[in-house]
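Subject: Sanity check before I submit

Could someone independently write out the structure tokens for this chain? I want to compare against mine line by line before I put it in a report. The sequence has 399 residues.
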Amino acid sequence: MKNIMYNIAFYGILIFAVHVFSPSAVLAITLSWDIPQNEKLEFVYDANIEYYENGMLRKIYGERNIIDLLCYDKDTKGQAVRGSFSVYRKNINDYVYRLEEQYFSDFYINSNGVYVVPEGIFMPNLRHLPTFPETDVHVGEVWKAPVNIVFNNFSVPLILLLEAHYTLLFINDQTKEAFIQYSILIDKTLKDKPYPEDLPIKIYGQYAGQVTWDLQKNQSKKSINAYNLLLIFGRTGELSTIEFKMSIDQTNKAYLHVPEEEKKKQQKEIEKALKQDGVSVDSDARGMIIRFSDILFDFDKYNLNADARKVLDKLVEIIKAKYPNNEIIVEGHTDNIGTDEYNQNLSEKRAQTVATILKNKLGHDKVSYRGMGKSRPIDDNSTAAGRQRNRRVEIIIKM
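---
Independent answer below. Compare away.
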């Protein structure tokens, strides 16, 4: 426990030491949230995580969370947003992230940063960060505001009601950026109520970081964070612990909403450019979908055949020209011949093969994969032609 507190305290001192002597011409500002209507704000969190059991390091892995918030309505008090929350992980020796969890949400963000989330919705799991005072904030000023952390990996959801401490470190008048430091202390005992057996009896930790706030757009630009969490279990008698230590880099980017008619136009352009039997282009809520029906791989294989590489090269050229910053998700699908385990493994390996090639050729890391096995057929598995269509790889360009 001492190590956790020391690491966070040192981290906070380091942030302050870097910026405390930076001069600022502006001494006070109004801080607020703003996502323009029909604009999507993408948050990308990259974390390096150490996982401990009973004090022993068990695993080191990378996790990426991508949050997309589309503002679909605004009023004078804030904005209503639809959000998708995607969780990607990769082990220390993996090259490409694997998409493991995905959630959807619809909630409201007040202009001061307070979230209004309907009951029963568990994403976002970190709420009201950052929250701003209603009045102007001076350089060096400190304020407090509620913050919630939601755990939805137990038998019942657990919401921690906490408090964040903020400091406006300094303002860069040239770049129109404010630098805000925050810290959240976690010290909760869960013994007083009849909690389920799988919940911890104590939770310790601290979340600390620094946000770079864009004063022209009224949006977070980036942040650096450190998060340490210790869970103590022992409702059945013997004590045990699980601990997470992580450093997190966050970057944001705003995108204009693409109307359906524009999606259809782009869809036809991609289809025309590829000119390949067995390749079709579609779109849905996930984005633009380039579907390869059983042409990339030989039977029971997950190494690309020679013709497939030529088709993928054409697609890479299109993505580089029109969608250079968009997130790419590769999904593998199979027919229903064979066991569930066999189909799941084959679909994952095929998707991973394509994602690896795309990452190499595109030159960025916003590429991930997942295998769906036989769970999402698009045709009748009782016919040979239907099974051939179901054996496919889908490359999704998030719009």
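---
OP: Matches mine. For the report I'm noting this point. The helical segments are 2-19, 260-274, 306-322, 340-362, 384-390.
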